[in-house]
User: Which sequence fits this backbone?
């Protein structure tokens, strides 16, 4: 289950938050129609409300069980590189740089790209 990964990350000291996995239902905010986009936070104050408290995380994912996991990199002491493959193969170009990423966390993205996360 996704919540198990969120908790695993939190136990590493990472601050996580639930993010939309698809377009959300439109709602009215101050007279303006807002449609939440994929990857945007479900929670108020977005990544600034990220938590590594297991009870909070379980509550979020019980409410939004299919939410993607967002991470507040700054608060978690992390640096992430987002390697896209849509127009140019960012993964191939990154490897050409010769950067040692063997100690980094690697995560494939839904579009086929990759996130490389360093602490």
Assistant:
């Amino acid at each position: 289950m996704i919540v198990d990964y969120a908790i695993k990350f939190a136990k590493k000291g990472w601050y996580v938050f639930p993010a939309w996995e698809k377009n959300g239902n439109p709602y009215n905010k101050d007279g303006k129609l807002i449609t939440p986009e994929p990857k945007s936070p479900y929670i108020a104050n977005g990544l600034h409300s990220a938590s590594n408290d297991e009870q909070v995380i379980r509550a979020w994912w019980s409410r939004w069980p299919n939410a993607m996991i967002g991470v507040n990199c700054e608060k978690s002491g992390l640096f992430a590189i987002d390697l896209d493959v849509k127009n140019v193969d960012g993964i191939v170009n990154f490897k050409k740089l010769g950067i040692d990423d063997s100690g980094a966390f690697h995560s494939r993205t839904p579009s086929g790209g990759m996130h490389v996360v360093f602490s």
Q: What stands out?
A: The radius of gyration is 16 Å. The helical segments are 2-11, 54-63, 73-76, 90-96. The longest strand covers residues 79-83. The first helix runs from residue 2 to 11.
